[in-house]
Write a structure and sequence with these properties.
Blueprint lengths: L2 H20 L2 H22 L3 E3 L2 E4 L2 E4 L2 H4 L1 H12 L6 H31 L5 H27 L8 H12 L3
Antiparallel strand pairs: 1-2, 2-3
Helix pairs in contact: 1-4, 2-4, 2-5, 4-5, 4-6, 5-6
Protein backbone atom coordinates (compact mmCIF):
# COMPACT_ATOMS: atom_id res chain seq x y z
CA UNK A 1 0.00 0.00 0.00
CA UNK A 2 1.35 3.41 -0.90
CA UNK A 3 2.29 5.89 1.79
CA UNK A 4 -0.62 8.28 1.07
CA UNK A 5 -3.14 5.44 1.04
CA UNK A 6 -1.81 4.13 4.37
CA UNK A 7 -2.05 7.58 5.95
CA UNK A 8 -5.56 8.09 4.55
CA UNK A 9 -6.57 4.67 5.89
CA UNK A 10 -5.11 5.45 9.30
CA UNK A 11 -6.88 8.81 9.63
CA UNK A 12 -10.10 7.36 8.20
CA UNK A 13 -10.15 4.52 10.70
CA UNK A 14 -9.54 6.83 13.66
CA UNK A 15 -12.11 9.33 12.36
CA UNK A 16 -14.68 6.54 12.25
CA UNK A 17 -13.77 5.54 15.82
CA UNK A 18 -14.15 9.15 17.02
CA UNK A 19 -17.50 9.58 15.28
CA UNK A 20 -18.84 6.30 16.64
CA UNK A 21 -17.42 7.16 20.07
CA UNK A 22 -19.31 10.44 19.98
CA UNK A 23 -22.51 8.49 19.23
CA UNK A 24 -21.75 5.69 21.73
CA UNK A 25 -25.43 5.67 22.68
CA UNK A 26 -26.07 3.67 19.53
CA UNK A 27 -24.52 0.63 21.23
CA UNK A 28 -26.98 0.93 24.11
CA UNK A 29 -29.91 1.42 21.74
CA UNK A 30 -29.01 -1.65 19.68
CA UNK A 31 -27.83 -4.00 22.41
CA UNK A 32 -30.33 -3.15 25.19
CA UNK A 33 -33.20 -5.21 23.75
CA UNK A 34 -30.75 -7.85 22.52
CA UNK A 35 -29.60 -8.27 26.13
CA UNK A 36 -32.83 -7.75 28.09
CA UNK A 37 -35.14 -10.11 26.17
CA UNK A 38 -32.88 -13.20 26.21
CA UNK A 39 -32.20 -12.67 29.95
CA UNK A 40 -35.93 -12.29 30.53
CA UNK A 41 -36.75 -15.47 28.56
CA UNK A 42 -34.05 -17.47 30.37
CA UNK A 43 -35.20 -16.28 33.80
CA UNK A 44 -38.83 -16.91 32.84
CA UNK A 45 -38.00 -20.61 32.40
CA UNK A 46 -37.03 -20.81 36.08
CA UNK A 47 -39.08 -18.11 37.80
CA UNK A 48 -42.46 -16.46 37.53
CA UNK A 49 -41.32 -13.03 36.35
CA UNK A 50 -42.57 -10.04 34.42
CA UNK A 51 -40.90 -7.45 32.24
CA UNK A 52 -41.77 -3.78 32.07
CA UNK A 53 -39.44 -1.73 29.90
CA UNK A 54 -35.99 -2.44 31.28
CA UNK A 55 -37.16 -3.76 34.67
CA UNK A 56 -37.47 -7.46 35.37
CA UNK A 57 -39.73 -8.14 38.37
CA UNK A 58 -39.72 -11.27 40.48
CA UNK A 59 -42.27 -10.87 43.25
CA UNK A 60 -41.23 -7.71 45.09
CA UNK A 61 -37.68 -7.79 43.69
CA UNK A 62 -36.93 -5.56 40.72
CA UNK A 63 -33.85 -5.86 38.54
CA UNK A 64 -33.32 -2.74 36.46
CA UNK A 65 -31.20 -3.20 33.37
CA UNK A 66 -29.27 0.07 33.34
CA UNK A 67 -26.79 1.03 30.62
CA UNK A 68 -23.90 -0.45 32.59
CA UNK A 69 -25.63 -3.85 32.37
CA UNK A 70 -25.75 -3.52 28.59
CA UNK A 71 -21.98 -2.89 28.40
CA UNK A 72 -22.10 -0.46 25.47
CA UNK A 73 -18.60 0.75 26.23
CA UNK A 74 -17.32 -2.84 25.94
CA UNK A 75 -18.77 -3.03 22.42
CA UNK A 76 -17.07 0.27 21.61
CA UNK A 77 -13.76 -1.05 22.98
CA UNK A 78 -14.09 -4.09 20.73
CA UNK A 79 -14.79 -1.81 17.78
CA UNK A 80 -11.78 0.36 18.66
CA UNK A 81 -9.51 -2.68 18.87
CA UNK A 82 -10.78 -3.79 15.47
CA UNK A 83 -10.40 -0.40 13.79
CA UNK A 84 -6.96 0.24 15.27
CA UNK A 85 -5.40 -2.53 13.18
CA UNK A 86 -3.97 -1.43 9.82
CA UNK A 87 -4.06 -3.34 6.53
CA UNK A 88 -7.26 -5.28 7.20
CA UNK A 89 -9.69 -5.72 4.33
CA UNK A 90 -13.13 -4.22 5.02
CA UNK A 91 -14.92 -7.56 4.61
CA UNK A 92 -12.62 -9.25 7.15
CA UNK A 93 -13.01 -6.28 9.51
CA UNK A 94 -16.82 -6.48 9.33
CA UNK A 95 -16.91 -10.25 9.85
CA UNK A 96 -14.51 -9.96 12.78
CA UNK A 97 -16.70 -7.24 14.32
CA UNK A 98 -19.86 -9.30 13.84
CA UNK A 99 -18.28 -12.35 15.46
CA UNK A 100 -16.79 -10.28 18.29
CA UNK A 101 -20.07 -8.49 18.98
CA UNK A 102 -21.96 -11.82 18.93
CA UNK A 103 -19.52 -13.39 21.37
CA UNK A 104 -19.66 -10.35 23.66
CA UNK A 105 -23.47 -10.36 23.54
CA UNK A 106 -23.57 -14.06 24.48
CA UNK A 107 -21.10 -13.46 27.33
CA UNK A 108 -23.08 -10.48 28.59
CA UNK A 109 -26.41 -12.32 28.49
CA UNK A 110 -24.86 -15.16 30.47
CA UNK A 111 -23.27 -12.70 32.92
CA UNK A 112 -26.54 -10.85 33.57
CA UNK A 113 -28.48 -14.12 33.80
CA UNK A 114 -26.08 -15.59 36.40
CA UNK A 115 -25.99 -12.38 38.42
CA UNK A 116 -29.80 -12.20 38.34
CA UNK A 117 -30.08 -15.74 39.70
CA UNK A 118 -27.61 -14.88 42.48
CA UNK A 119 -29.60 -11.75 43.36
CA UNK A 120 -32.95 -13.54 43.28
CA UNK A 121 -31.60 -16.24 45.60
CA UNK A 122 -30.19 -13.58 47.96
CA UNK A 123 -26.64 -14.90 47.59
CA UNK A 124 -24.47 -13.51 50.40
CA UNK A 125 -21.56 -12.58 48.15
CA UNK A 126 -23.66 -11.10 45.35
CA UNK A 127 -22.14 -7.60 45.58
CA UNK A 128 -18.57 -8.94 45.53
CA UNK A 129 -19.24 -11.20 42.56
CA UNK A 130 -21.11 -8.40 40.79
CA UNK A 131 -18.08 -6.10 41.17
CA UNK A 132 -15.65 -8.83 40.07
CA UNK A 133 -17.77 -9.46 36.96
CA UNK A 134 -18.02 -5.74 36.34
CA UNK A 135 -14.36 -4.79 36.71
CA UNK A 136 -12.30 -7.89 35.97
CA UNK A 137 -14.28 -10.35 33.88
CA UNK A 138 -15.79 -7.76 31.56
CA UNK A 139 -12.41 -6.32 30.56
CA UNK A 140 -10.87 -9.79 30.34
CA UNK A 141 -13.79 -10.97 28.20
CA UNK A 142 -13.32 -8.14 25.70
CA UNK A 143 -9.57 -8.80 25.46
CA UNK A 144 -10.07 -12.57 25.09
CA UNK A 145 -12.80 -12.06 22.49
CA UNK A 146 -10.48 -9.74 20.57
CA UNK A 147 -7.59 -12.23 20.70
CA UNK A 148 -9.83 -15.11 19.61
CA UNK A 149 -11.34 -13.04 16.80
CA UNK A 150 -7.88 -11.92 15.65
CA UNK A 151 -6.71 -15.56 15.57
CA UNK A 152 -9.79 -16.80 13.73
CA UNK A 153 -9.53 -14.10 11.06
CA UNK A 154 -5.72 -14.09 11.04
CA UNK A 155 -5.60 -10.39 11.80
CA UNK A 156 -2.03 -9.18 12.01
CA UNK A 157 -0.83 -6.30 14.11
CA UNK A 158 -1.23 -5.00 17.61
CA UNK A 159 -4.12 -2.61 18.27
CA UNK A 160 -2.94 1.02 18.28
CA UNK A 161 0.74 -0.01 18.56
CA UNK A 162 1.03 -0.99 14.89
CA UNK A 163 -0.25 2.45 13.86
CA UNK A 164 2.03 4.19 16.36
CA UNK A 165 5.07 2.32 15.03
CA UNK A 166 4.14 3.20 11.45
CA UNK A 167 3.74 6.89 12.31
CA UNK A 168 7.00 6.87 14.26
CA UNK A 169 8.87 5.39 11.28
CA UNK A 170 7.19 7.86 8.96
CA UNK A 171 8.05 10.90 11.08
CA UNK A 172 11.45 9.92 12.46
CA UNK A 173 12.59 7.63 9.70
CA UNK A 174 13.76 4.07 9.89
CA UNK A 175 16.44 3.74 12.53
Amino acid sequence: MKKRAKIASLFGRYAIMLIIGYFIGIFYTVFKPLTIYPVYFLLDIIYNISLSGSIISIGTLEIEMINACIAGSAYFLLLALNFSIPNTKPKKRIYALLLGFSMLLAFNILRVFILSILLINDFVYFEAIHMIFWYAFSIAAVVLIWILTAKIFRIKGIPFISDFIYLKKLLIGKS
